[in-house]
């Protein structure tokens, strides 16, 4: 079902606040507003361990998101099924049953990173809450983000995402939509999202690739590519909306989501956008000034290759991870750092079949490296003493154990 903005506004108008969840109203008020949309109950399949209260809260969250996006974007649909699970294997089994026979024959499964994350495909959303913290589980994980993908497909055919164009528009607009929803609910401010994404862009130190520049063949093989698509994509969508409005964003998907459709919806060519947005980058997200270079070794002095380094810095009192670099075959790395206080986080990729996607090995700071005890990143504290920006050429990070031992200790295997 597609609504004009006027119809949606008429159906939902309630003083200055359309989603009463964020304004302190009760379930009854939200249900009353949702009923006015005139859509069926969303189908939700609960898998794993949920209390009655959790089921009710998640059902209410879906309706709250539908209300918010109907008002903001003029579109609503219940023509999808949400599969949500506290057990990855149960969700994976449901996913395999849902797939077309051709994909089942190929052995297609949910990706290993779906520990506390979601995936939308056609008319279905699959969300795993297996490793979510209490707050994430209470809100049903990334419901708002994945529901926006359902809306994209609902209003028009979306082009493929095998390279960065138009993947950043698809994912960046879902980040944009869910960020506005989070602020409505009083969970996290748009200012936080914007500053965190800006820091990520400065850490990446590279432009958003143009429409003919394939940055990679897979959405999830390169961390820099992920951040371009999601974080820089969010900033790109916000830039477009500020100039052309949210109506143009939905028109882009309604037209089909391609390069010519971009020109029609936003009144500029993709190349014109890339040039203007690169100029914008120079103003809001110049590359970090300071360089860090060094080596990662195990306790026996052996180099540790393919370790991801992240700059850990703060936004509104919460630490965020900014991509820094990756060690080469000799364990050597190069990264850039901000002027602000920061540490350098060390992350190891968990092997396939683990219930965790990566393990946090610890942080390097002013007085050296401090290993983590459980491999779980905490966003409210630093392990090492933060340092400020300056060039550092000979950083030595010695892990508390070998890669094999750390992965066995930190990466939980699925049964």
Structure overview:
- This protein is an alpha/beta fold.
- It has 14 helices and 12 strands.
- The protein has a 5-stranded antiparallel sheet. The protein has a 4-stranded mixed sheet with strand order 1-2-4-3, sandwiched between helices.
- A hairpin with a 2-residue loop joins strand 10 (358-365) and strand 11.
- Helix 9 (190-204) packs across helix 10 (223-244).
End-to-end CA span: 42 Å
Main β-sheet: number of strands, strand sense, barrel status? 5 strands, antiparallel
By DSSP, the count of extended strands is 12
> Rough shape?
globular
Mean pLDDT score? 86
Order of helices and strands: HHEHEHHEEHHHHHHHHEEEEEEEEH
Strand order of the largest sheet: 7-6-9-10-11
Helical run tally = 14
Uncertain ranges: 1-25, 214-221
Task: Set out the fold topology.
Blueprint: H1 5-12, H2 27-35, E1 43-47, H3 52-73, E2 81-85, H4 88-98, H5 101-105, E3 117-121, E4 124-128, H6 134-138, H7 143-155, H8 164-184, H9 190-204, H10 223-244, H11 246-255, H12 259-266, H13 270-284, E5 290-297, E6 308-315, E7 318-326, E8 332-337, E9 342-349, E10 358-365, E11 368-371, E12 392-398, H14 403-410
Helix pairs in contact: 1-3, 2-3, 3-7, 7-8, 7-11, 8-10, 9-10, 10-11, 11-12
């Amino acid at each position: 079902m597609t609504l004009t903005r006027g119809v949606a506004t008429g159906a939902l108008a309630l003083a200055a606040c359309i989603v009463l969840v964020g304004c302190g109203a009760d379930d009854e008020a939200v249900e009353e507003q949702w009923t006015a949309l005139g859509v069926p109950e969303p189908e939700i399949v609960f898998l794993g361990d949920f209390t009655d209260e959790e089921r009710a809260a998640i059902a209410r969250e879906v309706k709250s998101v539908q209300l918010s996006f109907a008002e903001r974007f003029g579109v609503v649909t219940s023509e999808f099924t949400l599969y949500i699970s506290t057990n990855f294997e149960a969700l994976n089994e449901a996913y395999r049953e849902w797939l077309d026979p051709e994909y089942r024959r190929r052995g297609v499964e949910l990706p290993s990173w779906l520990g506390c994350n979601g995936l939308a495909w056609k008319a279905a959303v699959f969300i795993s809450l297996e490793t979510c913290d209490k707050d994430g589980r209470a809100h049903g994980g990334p419901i708002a983000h994945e529901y926006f993908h359902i809306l994209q497909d609902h209003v028009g055919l979306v082009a493929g995402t095998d390279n960065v164009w138009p993947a950043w528009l698809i994912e960046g607009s879902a980040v944009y939509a869910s960020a506005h929803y989070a602020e409505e609910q009083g969970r996290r401010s748009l200012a936080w999202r914007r500053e965190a994404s800006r820091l990520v862009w400065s850490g990446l130190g590279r432009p958003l690739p143009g429409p003919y520049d394939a940055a990679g063949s897979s959405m999830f093989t390169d961390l820099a590519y992920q951040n371009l698509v999601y974080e820089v994509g969010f900033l790109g969508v916000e830039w477009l909306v500020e100039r052309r409005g949210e109506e143009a964003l939905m028109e882009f998907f309604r037209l089909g989501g391609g390069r010519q459709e971009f020109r029609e919806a936003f009144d500029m060519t993709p190349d014109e956008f890339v040039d203007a947005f690169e100029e914008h980058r120079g103003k809001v997200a110049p590359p970090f000034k300071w360089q860090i270079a060094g080596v990662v070794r195990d306790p026996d002095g052996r180099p540790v290759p393919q370790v991801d380094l992240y700059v850990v810095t703060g936004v509104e009192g919460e630490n965020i991870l900014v991509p820094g670099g990756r060690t080469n075959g000799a364990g050597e790395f190069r990264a850039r750092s901000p002027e602000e206080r920061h540490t350098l986080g060390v992350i190891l990729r968990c092997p396939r079949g683990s219930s965790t996607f990566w393990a946090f090995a610890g942080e390097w700071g002013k007085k050296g490296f401090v290993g983590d005890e459980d491999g779980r990143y905490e966003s409210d504290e630093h392990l090492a003493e933060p340092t400020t920006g300056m060039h550092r050429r000979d950083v030595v990070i010695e892990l508390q154990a070998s890669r094999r031992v750390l992965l066995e200790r930190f990466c939980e295997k699925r049964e």
